Amino acid sequence: MDEYERIDMYDHAYGMRDRATAVVLRSGLLLLVRDHGFHQFSLPGGGLQRGETAEEAVSRELAEETGLRAVSVTALPQCRTSDIFNTYLVFKVQAEGILRIDQKELSAAQWWDGREDIPLFGYVTDVLKHLHWLK
Protein backbone atom coordinates (compact mmCIF):
# COMPACT_ATOMS: atom_id res chain seq x y z
CA MET A 1 0.00 0.00 0.00
CA ASP A 2 1.52 3.34 -1.02
CA GLU A 3 1.24 6.66 0.81
CA TYR A 4 -1.69 7.93 -1.30
CA GLU A 5 -3.70 4.76 -0.71
CA ARG A 6 -3.16 5.15 3.05
CA ILE A 7 -4.27 8.80 2.89
CA ASP A 8 -7.32 7.78 0.82
CA MET A 9 -8.20 5.10 3.40
CA TYR A 10 -7.79 7.62 6.24
CA ASP A 11 -9.95 10.19 4.46
CA HIS A 12 -12.63 7.59 3.74
CA ALA A 13 -12.63 6.20 7.29
CA TYR A 14 -12.78 9.58 9.00
CA GLY A 15 -14.90 11.48 6.50
CA MET A 16 -12.26 14.03 5.48
CA ARG A 17 -12.37 14.76 1.77
CA ASP A 18 -11.76 17.44 -0.83
CA ARG A 19 -14.98 19.16 -1.86
CA ALA A 20 -15.17 21.28 -5.02
CA THR A 21 -17.34 24.29 -4.24
CA ALA A 22 -18.93 26.84 -6.61
CA VAL A 23 -19.43 30.55 -6.07
CA VAL A 24 -22.10 31.33 -8.66
CA LEU A 25 -23.24 34.93 -8.98
CA ARG A 26 -26.01 36.15 -11.26
CA SER A 27 -27.32 39.72 -11.33
CA GLY A 28 -25.64 40.40 -7.98
CA LEU A 29 -27.21 37.36 -6.30
CA LEU A 30 -25.35 34.34 -4.91
CA LEU A 31 -26.60 30.79 -5.50
CA LEU A 32 -27.11 28.83 -2.27
CA VAL A 33 -28.34 25.26 -1.86
CA ARG A 34 -29.62 23.19 1.05
CA ASP A 35 -29.15 19.44 1.35
CA HIS A 36 -31.86 17.20 2.76
CA GLY A 37 -31.78 17.00 6.54
CA PHE A 38 -29.95 20.29 7.08
CA HIS A 39 -31.16 23.71 8.19
CA GLN A 40 -28.14 25.62 6.86
CA PHE A 41 -27.48 26.64 3.30
CA SER A 42 -24.23 25.86 1.50
CA LEU A 43 -22.57 26.60 -1.81
CA PRO A 44 -23.19 24.12 -4.63
CA GLY A 45 -20.58 21.42 -4.96
CA GLY A 46 -19.47 18.05 -3.76
CA GLY A 47 -16.75 15.47 -3.49
CA LEU A 48 -14.29 14.61 -6.20
CA GLN A 49 -14.64 11.26 -7.87
CA ARG A 50 -11.54 9.14 -8.41
CA GLY A 51 -9.54 10.50 -11.34
CA GLU A 52 -11.58 13.71 -11.54
CA THR A 53 -10.08 17.18 -11.27
CA ALA A 54 -11.62 19.72 -8.91
CA GLU A 55 -12.66 21.81 -11.92
CA GLU A 56 -14.45 18.83 -13.44
CA ALA A 57 -16.09 18.01 -10.10
CA VAL A 58 -17.44 21.51 -9.51
CA SER A 59 -18.95 21.60 -13.01
CA ARG A 60 -20.47 18.12 -12.64
CA GLU A 61 -21.90 18.81 -9.18
CA LEU A 62 -23.39 22.13 -10.27
CA ALA A 63 -25.15 20.44 -13.18
CA GLU A 64 -26.36 17.49 -11.08
CA GLU A 65 -27.69 19.62 -8.23
CA THR A 66 -29.06 22.66 -10.04
CA GLY A 67 -29.31 21.95 -13.77
CA LEU A 68 -26.96 24.88 -14.46
CA ARG A 69 -24.09 24.46 -16.92
CA ALA A 70 -20.68 25.89 -16.06
CA VAL A 71 -19.27 27.98 -18.90
CA SER A 72 -16.28 29.39 -17.00
CA VAL A 73 -14.49 27.98 -13.95
CA THR A 74 -11.81 30.02 -12.14
CA ALA A 75 -9.97 28.82 -9.04
CA LEU A 76 -10.18 31.04 -5.94
CA PRO A 77 -7.24 29.66 -3.91
CA GLN A 78 -7.50 32.50 -1.37
CA CYS A 79 -10.94 31.12 -0.41
CA ARG A 80 -9.79 27.55 0.30
CA THR A 81 -10.96 26.58 3.77
CA SER A 82 -11.48 23.46 5.89
CA ASP A 83 -13.62 22.10 8.67
CA ILE A 84 -13.45 18.76 10.45
CA PHE A 85 -15.02 16.95 7.49
CA ASN A 86 -13.89 18.69 4.29
CA THR A 87 -11.34 20.82 2.56
CA TYR A 88 -13.26 23.21 0.34
CA LEU A 89 -11.64 23.94 -3.02
CA VAL A 90 -13.46 27.06 -4.15
CA PHE A 91 -14.15 28.20 -7.72
CA LYS A 92 -15.89 31.18 -9.22
CA VAL A 93 -18.25 29.66 -11.76
CA GLN A 94 -20.07 31.48 -14.52
CA ALA A 95 -23.11 29.37 -15.32
CA GLU A 96 -25.97 29.40 -17.75
CA GLY A 97 -29.39 27.84 -17.73
CA ILE A 98 -32.45 27.78 -15.54
CA LEU A 99 -32.17 26.79 -11.89
CA ARG A 100 -33.89 23.41 -11.42
CA ILE A 101 -32.96 21.45 -8.34
CA ASP A 102 -32.73 17.70 -8.28
CA GLN A 103 -35.09 16.72 -5.45
CA LYS A 104 -32.92 13.65 -4.76
CA GLU A 105 -29.88 15.90 -4.23
CA LEU A 106 -31.31 19.02 -2.56
CA SER A 107 -34.25 20.24 -0.51
CA ALA A 108 -33.92 23.88 -1.63
CA ALA A 109 -31.94 26.39 -3.67
CA GLN A 110 -32.17 30.15 -3.89
CA TRP A 111 -30.50 33.24 -5.29
CA TRP A 112 -29.48 35.28 -2.22
CA ASP A 113 -28.76 39.00 -2.00
CA GLY A 114 -26.69 38.70 1.18
CA ARG A 115 -29.05 40.92 3.17
CA GLU A 116 -31.64 38.43 4.37
CA ASP A 117 -30.55 36.64 7.54
CA ILE A 118 -30.42 32.96 6.61
CA PRO A 119 -28.52 30.08 8.22
CA LEU A 120 -25.19 29.35 6.51
CA PHE A 121 -22.62 26.67 7.14
CA GLY A 122 -19.45 28.10 8.68
CA TYR A 123 -17.34 27.41 5.61
CA VAL A 124 -19.74 29.51 3.48
CA THR A 125 -19.29 32.46 5.84
CA ASP A 126 -15.50 31.99 5.63
CA VAL A 127 -15.57 31.99 1.81
CA LEU A 128 -17.83 35.05 1.66
CA LYS A 129 -15.58 36.95 4.09
CA HIS A 130 -12.59 36.25 1.84
CA LEU A 131 -14.58 37.62 -1.09
CA HIS A 132 -15.76 40.66 0.94
CA TRP A 133 -19.26 39.67 -0.11
CA LEU A 134 -21.17 39.67 3.19
CA LYS A 135 -23.39 42.73 3.37
Outline the fold blueprint.
Layout: H1 3-14, E1 17-23, E2 25-26, E3 29-35, E4 45-47, H2 54-66, E5 69-75, E6 81-82, E7 86-96, E8 106-112, H3 122-130
Structure description:
- The protein is an alpha+beta fold and 135 residues long.
- It has three helices and eight strands.
- The N and C termini lie far apart (49 Å).
- It has a single domain, classed as Nucleoside Triphosphate Pyrophosphohydrolase, CATH 3.90.79.10.
- The protein has helices spanning 3-14, 54-66, 122-130; strands at 17-23, 25-26, 29-35, 45-47, 69-75, 81-82, 86-96, 106-112.
- A hairpin with a 2-residue loop joins strand 2 (25-26) and strand 3.
- Helices cover 25% and strands 34% of the residues.
- The radius of gyration is 15 Å and the shape is globular.
- Strands 1, 4, 5, 6 and 7 form a five-stranded mixed beta sheet that branches.
Shape, per Cα inertia axes? globular
CATH class: Alpha Beta
Per the CATH scheme, the topology name is: Nucleoside Triphosphate Pyrophosphohydrolase
Number of extended strands: 8
Number of contiguous helices: 3
CATH superfamily descriptor: Nucleoside Triphosphate Pyrophosphohydrolase
Helix content: 25-40%
Subunit organisation of the chains = single chain
How many separate domains make up the residues? 1
The topology string of helices and strands comes to: HEEEEHEEEEH
Mean pLDDT: 88
Structural class: alpha+beta
Low-pLDDT segments, ≥5 res: 1-11
Q: What's the architecture in CATH terms?
A: Alpha-Beta Complex
Strand content: 25-35%
What Rg do the Cα atoms give? Answer: 15 Å
